[in-house]
Records
---
Amino acid sequence: MSEDADQIADAAAETQAADAHVPEHEAALLEAAALVHAANAPRVLAEDEHVPVDRAERAKAFLRSMFRLAIERSHMRVALVGLVFVAVFGTISAKLLMMAIFGEPPSQEHRVAAASSTAFRPDIADRNGEILATDIRTVSVFAEPGNIYDKDEAVELLTAVLPELNATELRAKLASRKGRSGAGFVWVKRELTPKQQAEVHRLGIPGIGFLPDQRVYPNGTAAAHILGATNLDGIGIAGMEKYIDSTGLQALNSFGLVNKQADLKPVQLSIDLRAQFAVRDELAWGIDHFKAKAGASMILDVKTGEVIALVSMPDFDPNDPKDALSPDRINRMNVGVYEMGSTFKAMTLAMALDSGKYNVNSTFDTRGGVLNWGRQKIHEYHGTNRVITMPEVFTHSPNIGSAKMALGVGVTGHKAFLKKMGLLDRLRTELPESAAPIVPSRWTEINTITIAFGHGIAVAPIQAAAAVAAIANGGDLITPTFLKANPDDKARATHVLSPQTSEAMRYIMRLNASEGSAKKAAIPYYFVGGKTGTAEKVIGGRYIHNRLFTTFMAAAPMNDPKYLFVTIMDEPQGLPESGGYATAAWNSGVVTGKVIERVAPILGLPPQFEPPVRPFPQMVKLNAYHINQLGGP
């Protein structure tokens, strides 16, 4: 053995001897020092000894020394373990903090719902400031399926506090998995009460949250077809709500330019809520009493074009608008197009008078009761079988007299007049819903003949009302509006008739209420004038004689008209009180009269206890038919 080996052996022997006299921990230190000394000492390798074995022994020795309970090494071990714990728990804490602050990346549905829930809409008020629509902030509960770990438990808990939920449907909603767009998003229930919100909140289900929403219509169905509705995401889907969005409201909200509802000016409509309730009430009675499929009624200010009331039934509740887009709940005044029957004779007479080819004393031969035109035969419904005056064409409503007037003006002049009166084009108002009229693709003389008495052309009732309003107001065609208008604003008016023609038509309409088909609406003291219209419905390309569409238009007072009242009824039935007749005078005329009687005082229309003096001065000069019965010299 070499000299170095002898030294190591001696050191070991000395260590063994010292072990008997030193404490155990000191002995361990000495042994470790000896090992270190041996490891650093130069060695002579045996023939079969290799360096890797020596390095392995040294590593083992180092590890044994690290885990000995020497006090100077315990500090290092504690520090190392502490660093590991700090790193692990720091990472977890940071992740939890990030999730609490930012959450999972929201899905597109979540972003849209959150944006709409924080969007603001202006109040909608009637012309007197009564609230028709407003925002009341309630909440809805939503779920993020990707963040719900036990979906069955979530379904069980949610249906326990919200028993109206369908467990199967809710489970299907929550079955979606987290995708690239985030944790997903589904509505659980809209419009929670505060109590329901508190109960859901107490469940503490991860992945369940709340968003504010709710548009409220305090008057329910009263003005449904005017207001329209918003969908579950607060976007207007019909009526004035949709119109408001089209004016830029959605853009303002999307850019965050509206911080509170007070930033938005209320939208004031032309509607008078008091009249609206009254009209709906009377129309509902009429539909029920006359067993009609549907009906509609409106009041139009003939001087400003403002729609004072409009009701179409069946209607819907904007607070629960699931039926708003149902085909049977359309706004029949705006969207429906119908043959208007004899109410169109008002256009024919106004055209004839304004053309200069006829005057109020012109006569027409209706003897025989049949007008032969080629292979076509035009029959009378109320034939007089004699020569009649122009006012009698209106009061007795013979089709032959109207047809001869229209033929006298000619096809070109007839088309031009109806175009001027806005009856050949789609009428656009603030309401997004509208319908184009149905006109002949090839307009010949036979078309002019039938259109003269309201057959062969179908228009929206509101555009026919606008044309009649122009006839009554002195000749100004004004596009109807659902916004409160400035009475002095004449920018929307187009002059289409002479004042003389307008006066003649007011006289003729008043005469019809006095001794013709409009008697049912001739409410005393309001000097009413009007016209009935009955048309057979076209079904499968054929006219069905026992399925009628009836119309009644009346204006008051006829010496200085302020309002036009319109009622339409779809398939009213004949009653014993009407002798089985289902024509307009017996149903739409009755409803219109009840509306006038009830609404006139509300609208401030003063009764005239004495007949007006010289209401139609030009007709007096012309000594018009029966003028002495309507207020002569």
---
Amino acid sequence: MIDLSGFLTILKRTKFVIVYLLVILLILLCKISAFASSEVPTLQDYLKKVGNVERPKKEIIIEAINYTSSSNASVRKISQFYGQKDVLLWEKEGGWLEWSVNIPEDGFYNMALLYYPLPGKGLGIEFSVFIDGKIPYKEAQKVTFPRVWKDTTGIRKDKKGNDLRPKCDEHQQWQKIDFIDTEGFYNKALPFYFTKGEHKIRLISIREPIALKQLIIYNSEELPTYEEYISKSREKNSKNVFIKIQGENTYLKSDPILYPTYDRTDPATEPYHVSKIRLNTIGQWNWRYPGMWISWIFEVPQDGYYKIAIKARQNFVRGLSVHRKLYIDGKIPFKEAEDIEFPYSISWYMKTIGKKNQPYLIYLKKGVHELRLESTLGAFSEILSRVESTTIDLNNLYRKIIMITGTSPDLYRDYFLEEQIPELVSTLKRLSNELEEEAAMFEKLAGQKGGEAEFLRRVALQLRSMAEDTDTIPGRLTSFRDNLSGLSSWLAYRRDQPLEIDYILITSPEEKLPSPTASIGNKIVNSIKAFLYSFVEDYNNVGEVYQGQKVIKVWVGGGRDQAQIIRDLINDSFTPQTGIKVNVSLVQAGLIEAILAGKGPDIVLTVSRAQPVNLAARGALVDLSKFKDFNEVKKRFAKTALVPYTYNGGVYGLPVTQDFYMMFYRKDILKELNIELPRTWDDMYKVIAKLQRYNLQVGLPYQRIDALEAIDAGLGARNLFPTLLLQFGGSFYDKTKTRTLLDRPEAVAAFKTWTDFYTKYNLPLIYDFYNRFRTGEMPLGIAPYTTYNLLSTAAPEIRNEWGMAPIPGVKKPNGEIDRSTGGSGTACIILKKSRNKEACWEFLKWWTSDEIQTQFGKELEMLMGTAARYNTANLRAFQRLPWNKEEIENLETQWKYVKEIEEVPGSYYITRSIDSAFSAVVYQGINPRESMWKYTKEINDELERKRIELSLNK
């Protein structure tokens, strides 16, 4: 007889299990759906969706002054402006303008602006483009319109006979420029699909002011082929013409970073000197980004056809060619000139523009002409765009997988990935096939098998293997993530198009070209001479070396480029204004040793945070607060900026740079997960919990400090503890600055909160924030604000997808959020043994002034790009650096809460002890209160010992 009640019980239990499994599956599906494709497609997806449509040969011109609506845009109309009538001045960045346009025919169109850059911070003008209230594709989120630059002096020489870079300033002029995504891989005019009828075009200002004349919607005529170009004319060839243009003697350029460079590897480089620096080339690694261009002017004596040859070297991108567009008088003469290849070679070679041994002849009329070469991806543009699209899809797939498995999956557990991600196998196969196709396309374009395409094939092979056996995916996640990072780096590296030019030849077709390299005998003789000269040339001093007692000696850390900028500023500004002569030396270390040996400098411009107090306690530095105008000088900096350099009532250093924490976040991921930025730490706990439900992480700063590093590191922004201590109302020291207060309740609470992030919330201690942020594995993190420099230059695949905001804080009873944080930075000091202390003080006042700090920051960025964005401590200089409106508002909001922490003799022991206390809690499970109490006693003992050693208790 069947036990009906038992059967019903089993049925109920089975039903409960089924319902439970369905709920779990539903949750997982919700997680996966959260990472569905973004609302804004990539350009490649946009082109696929629209398909092949016509490009009507139409041109619609919209006068900028006829905008139909606006919001928060600081604009005014003006009747005359630099040769143009009825111009719209958009004088401050921010806000938007919208124009209505009637499109006569369906199809793809290009858009261009006729504009004049207004004086700003020296960067390109940036807009977001909306069509009918929507961004058509991601590449339209930021479109850049460049400025034009010109060398305003010739190449100068210092008193040692070395060449100095010419001064470079903006050359303002009207320009008609297409909407181009110069940051990405579609290095052509962006296509916009319009249907017939009325449309609205909106430009949102992101960065820099501009004067607008026209918005042009058009499709250009097809360029003729070279055969068509040459067959249209029966003009004769020029005869007996040989014109040489030195590459360093430029006319105009797109970026100030394109300054003259030097090469001493080959005596045939023009001009050349065996021991002196001669700026004899242009380009090198600086000329690598698509859209960068350089132009030269020349004059031909007669009408006729000419050939063009370029002495060039491309020894940066191994095994591949780089590409340039050729413009003559602002126009590309024929289709083949859109993509001129410069192959890889470790030696200089003569590149004749043409096909194989047949040069392309270009017709020029008698007179002055302009030749421009523009960096371009050429035929690689399409393949790199496709690889970028594949990489984005792979990142999305990786995040779907780790939402289920986590970043460190259990290798003995079955995750049923194929069931939980229904499209997993098909997506892996599709992406694998795409990478195989892209590798084949890359090999065809590169003209060789394997090489750089082999990495694409390795990733494709891994994807195919994962598709064949999905059970192996959890065990291969680390390798998969590494391949994703490698793929992103591969893309960024392929985007680079560096080229170096010695000179350009414009000659008659029959003229013979010179040899681009010197003979072996000449090279041997030159090497011997260079070796002998190395015994007499002084390579440490930068520029002039003065003699006499009234000369001050300045030590500069960093690189020679930075030192040369300082040398130029001194020559152009400080010495003419004050009559004080300065010797600048490039020194990396050895300050204490130099002081002990009596051979130290008068001034050091870049010392680490803890050094001023360490040296001041030993009587080695000048108290700057004794100078009569010190109180005026200190107004240049934030209220607490001088705190780390203050000791016993004196101030022994002026801040040069200052860094502090900001919160970096992925806009796309947080939006998809419906997560708001945390304003308080309570909010942060919720965000951490929600992200961890999706197996994503939050990055909080932690940097382990060894004993030697702690001496110079100081108590700045090395980890999150100083930030929490300040927000909790705690302090490192008592009023006498002789004992620490880290055993007080507020300090213990801050310490426990800090350790809880790692013990309770299991946040990672050691991680590569840059790589995890770009893959989306860590969509939120706190890091020094200079991290912006790295992300903006080295992560092009997530451009426009991330932002920077103030860090979370503690909510006070009055409703204010206290975002207090510590800081870090460098200082400049005057050594006590200096014989010219007043002259040294004049120099520090000049160096830390608003004007000089601004000029140094701008020239440094012009020289090295956004990666060298200067973190000056001068408040007004900071405002003048090339941050956009949103960035500077966020940074200034956080800067108001920066509270620098005092340095005292022995404070290095606090840094080490806090780290030891932290390790004891996180790794050994010690109670946070006990750990902090134990190390507080040791810290106070060391502070007392240090005071006895330095005789400070008397």
